[in-house]
């Protein structure tokens, strides 16, 4: 389930977004599953409902979830065919910044590749 770290420097709404995506990749949430309402999620995580609402809005914009008026919010089918070039470019820029920071800390390319491989195994689907 989605967890947040209130001591983290990462904004809470971004932690919620990442948490929902992690739950989907782990198989905790599947396409068609109903997710907690804004109020329920806010109560569970003990954070402001506006924060959850902001996270859900971003997740909807990214086609991760869909809200059906009067029925709830559901996980959308993961589209493995379509790529969101805008999101990919944003991610690529973040990755470049990460590589710069890693290089500055004298972390070698081989170690970065190992980190990527370890991380991808964590979410690999059977």
UniProtKB/TrEMBL annotation:
Annotated CDD domains: WHTH_GntR
Matches recorded under SMART domains: HTH_GNTR
Keyword DNA-binding attributed: yes
Protein known as: GntR family transcriptional regulator
Taxonomic source organism: Vagococcus carniphilus
Domain of life: Bacteria
Domain HTH gntR-type per the UniProt entry, residue ranges: 10-78
Recorded GO MF terms: DNA binding; DNA-binding transcription factor activity
Alphabetized UniProt keyword annotations: DNA-binding, Transcription, Transcription regulation
InterPro entries to which the protein is assigned, alphabetical: Tscrpt_reg_HTH_GntR, WH-like_DNA-bd_sf, WH_DNA-bd_sf
């Amino acid at each position: 389930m989605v967890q947040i770290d209130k001591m983290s420097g990462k904004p809470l709404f971004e932690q919620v977004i990442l948490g929902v995506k992690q739950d989907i990749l782990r198989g905790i949430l599947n396409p068609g599953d109903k997710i907690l309402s804004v109020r329920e999620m806010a109560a569970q995580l003990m954070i402001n409902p506006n924060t959850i609402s902001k996270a859900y809005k971003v997740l909807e914009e990214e086609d991760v979830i869909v809200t059906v008026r009067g029925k709830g919010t559901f996980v959308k089918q993961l589209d493995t065919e379509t790529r969101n070039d805008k999101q990919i470019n944003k991610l690529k820029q973040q990755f470049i910044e990460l590589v710069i920071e890693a290089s500055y800390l004298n972390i070698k390319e081989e170690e970065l590749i190992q980190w990527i491989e370890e991380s991808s195994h964590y979410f690999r689907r059977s």
